[in-house]
Design goal:
Length: 203
């Protein structure tokens, strides 16, 4: 499948594609992305709306784990995630005056942060060219025949090789939205899909 065909059709479907996590400050995006690892963006937004109204990055450094766990319970893994948030806040305050730096090395050194989270943060905050791979991007890439692997690092590399660098950030958001609302894991809406992938042809 030609990359221009994919780009053109995703542009038609999602001309204003952007991150669906809600945030106003850099650390809010970082923490929200960490929380989204095992939850939906919609649920994370509900939790972070309460969390960030009550605490800023400096007070998150001092808050008790019990209070954090109570707020973030709806996204799951509240004990581990509370520890992540508190340590992230502590390191941001102590090492960068509460700011998220444009540094892959630092961001990936934070608890709960892997390459996907780092790519999301860097691309959205600093417009660093990146193609973050989550479950939606992985599923769409495989169904469209762009990759034949579930290894996220290999998927990321193959997508970066296949598409122009200036398209990576936008395409990441478009792949996520396409996978979330059309090319779903269960009961994909193939009648709304402009691509002839093997999954669609089998129906």
């Amino acid at each position: 499948m030609k990359n221009n065909f994919i780009i053109e059709n995703l542009d038609l479907l999602y001309p204003l594609a952007q991150c669906e996590l809600e945030y106003k400050k850099d650390y809010e995006l970082l923490i929200a992305t960490v929380l989204s690892a095992q939850s939906t963006d919609k649920r994370v937004n509900m939790v972070t709306n309460t969390l960030f109204q009550k605490y800023d990055i400096f007070s998150l450094k001092e808050v008790s784990l019990t209070d954090l766990e109570e707020i973030i319970r709806p996204v799951g893994r509240q004990s581990r995630n509370a520890q992540y948030i508190k340590e992230i806040a502590t390191r941001l305050v102590n090492e960068h005056n509460g700011k998220v730096p444009n540094s892959r090395e630092f961001i990936e050194s934070l608890p709960g942060v892997g390459r996907k989270v780092c790519n999301v943060v860097l691309s959205n905050l600093y417009h660093v060219p990146a193609f973050a791979v989550d479950t939606h991007v992985s599923r769409v890439s495989n169904r469209l025949g762009l990759v034949k692997t579930t290894d996220v690092k290999k998927i990321e590399q193959e997508l970066m090789n296949y598409f122009p660098e200036e398209k990576w950030i936008r395409l990441h958001h478009q792949f996520v939205l396409f996978g979330r609302y059309i090319c779903k894991s269960k009961n994909p809406l193939c009648q709304k899909c402009p691509f002839n992938c093997p999954s669609k042809e089998d129906k």
